[in-house]
Amino acid sequence: MTPKPPASKRPASKRPASKRPASKRPAPDPSPRIAPGVATALVFGSSAAVLVVEIVALRLLAPYLGLTLETSTLVIGLALAAIAGGAWLGGRWADEHDGRRLLAPLLLVSGAVVAATPFLLRGAGAGVGGAFLLPVTATAIGVPGVLLSAVTPIVTKLRLSTLDETGAVVGRLSGLGTAGAILGTVLTGFVLISRVPVTWIMVGLGVLLVLGGVAVHVGSRRAVGAAAAAVVVVGGGAAALSPSGCDVETVYHCAVVVPDPDDPDVRVLVLDNLRHSSVDLADPTALEFAYVKALAAATEAEFPAGRPLRAHHLGGGGLTLPRYLAAERPGTVSTVSEIDPGVVAVDEQRLGLVTGPDLRVRVEDARVGLRSVPDGELDLVVGDAFGGVSVPWHLTTREALEGVHRVLRPDGVYAANLIDHDPLGFARAEVETLRTVFAHVALAATPDTVAGPGEGGGGNLVVLASDAPLEVAAWRDRLAARDVGWDVVDGAALTAWVGDSPVLTDDYAPVDQLLTPYARATPARR
Question: What value does the mean pLDDT take over residues 80-104?
Answer without folding.
Answer: 93
